[in-house]
Amino acid sequence: MPAIVLVGAQWGDEGKGKATDLLGSRIDYVVKFNGGNNAGHTVVVGGEKYALHLLPSGILTPGVTPVIANGVVVDLGVLFEELDALEARGVDTSKLVVSSNAHLIPRYNKVIDQVSERFLGQRKIGTTGRGIGPTYADKMNRIGIRVQDIFDESILRQKVEAALELKNQLLVKTYNRRAIEVDEVVEDLLQYAERLRPMVADTSLLLSKALDADEVVLCEAGQATLLDVDHGTYPYVTSSNAISAGACTGAGIPPTRIDRVIAILKAFTTRVGEGPFPTELHDEVGDTLREIGHEFGTTTGRPRRVGWLDVVIGRYAARVNGVTDFVVTKLDNLDTFDEIPVCVAYEVDGKRFDEMPENQTDFHHAKPVYEMLPGWNADITGCRTFEELPENAQRYIEFVEQQIGARVSVIGVGPGRDEVIVRHDLLND
Fold first, then answer.
1. Distance separating alpha carbons of residues 96 and 67, to the nearest angstrom
2. Residue 13 designated active-site
3. Residues 220-245: pLDDT tens digits?
4. Section 284-311 average pLDDT
5. pLDDT category of residue 412 using cuts at 50, 70 and 90
6. pLDDT tens-digit readout, 59-87
7. Active-site residue (options: 28, 41, 53, 113)
8. Tally of CA atoms within 13 A in the half-sphere of 375 that contains its CB
9. Does pLDDT of 290 surpass 70?
10. What's the average model confidence in pLDDT over 34-46?
11. If you compute the radius of gyration of the chain from its CA atoms, what whole number of angstroms results?
């Protein structure tokens, strides 16, 4: 069975858990292949809300094997806090598998992340301060600590010593902070070793065997397309590859085994942190959208920046991800607007851009070119077929399809996992 990749089409928080829920019992594995606990999924099951940060959302679906793959950076404290919280609510977490090659977030990287953001002042990136970026930097600098290292205390100590020789120079001499002791880092990591050991496996091999056995593997991206370190709004991005291609390196799945890419597109646009945002609203309309959509960060609690839908971004996401199906979420959040602007292009110094500008300077100065669509002023949360939607809501979806050049297969009309309209089966159509 070919693998499926699920990505965010904007700056994150689009509602990727909606698609995972929809596929439900037909999925055998849900794989987190990038990022760490710097992003969150809010999933509503049976009227109960679950906020997940590090764990794949598939952990809430009975029968699914959730996998934290090699491309993820893992804060062990957060991992076990989340597992304990779910188990306290009656969720079975015993099937979780963690890659032996995933990198760990040691406490010194959380300290460095936080103090470096403060040091940057107005030039800050807007990170969550959870040590994600410094840990990915360690990975590329080949001084990182992997899951497998905590099962050999001698190797772990050697690696921590080597990393702290460099890190303590930075903390003490640049940031005027105290040096971090090797022993406190080693002891902090070793305390989790025995509890973690039964969960650890060669996840690339595990997934390869699953695909050979005709099982369904869903690879779920953290963050989203415009936060991808290569293809996002650099430098205001995350530290990993959040596009569909990231599933290959982040989960050890070859591209020839992927045949479907599902992208989640919120019916308006949000982002958290710094960086350009052409359709951002700074008025009461933006405040209204934020309140209607409960647009506050799952991980940080920060108010999200809010703006109208930008289909230039949608076209870009379709192209760089090879999207086969879009899922449009939160369409119901637009129920009360008489008129709905949609950004179809940008204007920069008198020049029109129908695609993403080549350079960051142009994107930073981009002014949205809007096409105005009529609202529907009706409650659509009870709709379960496309034909049941008000005519103007149907036209909105058809307009989006035409603009992004890909089909909209699912429409979210409410926060619950069943509050959706399915136009095409995400697995078989």
1. 6
2. yes
3. 998 899 999 999 999 899 999 999 99
4. 88
5. very high
6. 888 889 999 999 999 999 999 999 999 99
7. 41
8. 16
9. yes
10. 75
11. 22
* Tokens of residue 81, six digits: 């806090």
pLDDT tens digits, 27-38: 999 999 999 987
What does the H/E/C string look like for the chain? CCEEEEEECCCCCCCHHHHHHHHHHHCCEEEECCECCCCCEEEEECCEEEEECCCCHHHHCCCCEEEECCCEEECHHHHHHHHHHHHHCCCCCCCCEEECCCEECCHHHHHHHHHHHHHHHHHCCCCCCCCHHHHHHHHHHCCCCEHHHHHCHHHHHHHHHHHHHHHHHHHHHHCCCCCCCHHHHHHHHHCCHHHHHHHEECHHHHHHHHHHCCCCEEEECCCCHHHCCCCCCCCCCCCCCCCCCHHHHHHCCCHHHEEEEEEEEECCEEECCCCCCCCECCCHHHHHHHHHHCCECCCCCCECEEECCEHHHHHHHHHHHCCCEEEEECHHHHCCCCEEEEEEEEEECCEEECCCCCCHHHHHCCEEEEEEEECCCCCCCCCCCHHHCCHHHHHHHHHHHHHHCCCEEEEECCCCCCCEEECCCCCCC
Cα 173 to Cα 178, 233, 285, 420, distances in angstroms: 9, 32, 47, 55
d(CA 158, CA 182): 9
Structure confidence at residue 104 as a pLDDT band (50, 70, 90)? very high
CA distance 307 to 50: 26
Residue (of 390, 376, 383) closest to 335 by Cα position: 376
Per-residue pLDDT band for 41 (boundaries 50, 70, 90) equals: low
Q: For residue 57, which phi and psi values (nearest 5 degrees)? A: -65, -20
Q: Are 331 and 379 in contact (CB under 8 A)?
A: no
